[in-house]
Amino acid sequence: MKKYSGFTLIELMITLAIVAIVTTLAIPGMSEFVKNERLTSASNNLLGDIMLARSKAVERNQPVIICASNDQANCNGNYEDGWIITIDSDSDGIGDEIIKIQQATEGNITYDQGGAGLSIITFDSRGFLPTGANTGTISVCDNRTNPDDYAKTISLSATGRASRGANPACP
Questions:
Q1: Which of 34, 39, 113, 125 has the fewest CB atoms lying closer than 10 Å?
Q2: Euclidean distance between CA atoms 159 and 111, whole angstroms
Q3: According to the model, what pLDDT value does residue 133 have?
């Protein structure tokens, strides 16, 4: 008599039940993980580009502007729409040469400046913010129920140093 090897119907049903239970438990956690990673990525992109603008100002010995831009050519809009980094070669406050264009952020990410007026950030040739320029924080938020619990904050000091901050304030 031949001996057959394989799965019985009961073994297969038990395996499928275990897979269904594990999947049901894992999917909500995975969704939170994806939202957290999107938020971190958006925050790191803006922080990295602020640092790039500052280093380009020092490297080129010219003012550099990073600003929110909804058309990727002019300083207008909100950071959700994207932003540009430009060289201000004639120091008139208007970018003359675009260095980098960042497209709009996906995933319901918002950038809140808390009234600090940081939609246009200009670094002088030393990498500092001009005297009297706005300093403060930009909170990077998403659309969860308690956004402050998950938000990331970028702080900008008068010396032009950008860093991860504390105490996010999402709308």
A1: 34
A2: 22
A3: 76
In this structure, what are the phi and psi dihedrals at residue 40, rounded to the nearest 5 degrees?
-65, -45
Q: 10-164 adopts what CATH topology?
A: minor pseudopilin epsh fold (3.55.40)
111 contact partners, CB below 8 Å, separation of at least 6: 46, 68, 78, 79, 80, 105, 138, 139, 140, 141
What SS3 class is residue 107? Answer: coil
Q: Hey, where are the domains in the chain? A: 10-164
In degrees, rounded to 5, the angle at the alpha carbon of residue 129 between the alpha carbons of residues 126 and 131 is 110
Q: How far apart are CA 82 and CA 75, in angstroms?
A: 10
Q: How far is it, in rounded angstroms, from Cα 91 to Cα 150?
A: 38
Bin 76: left if φ > 0, else alpha if -120 < ψ < 50, else beta. beta
- The answer to whether the beta carbons of residues 64 and 75 sit under 8 Å apart is no
Q: What is the model's pTM?
A: 0.81
Separation between Cα atoms, residue 53 and residue 64, nearest integer Å: 6
Length of the chain: 171
Q: Which residue has the higher pLDDT, 27 or 123?
A: 123
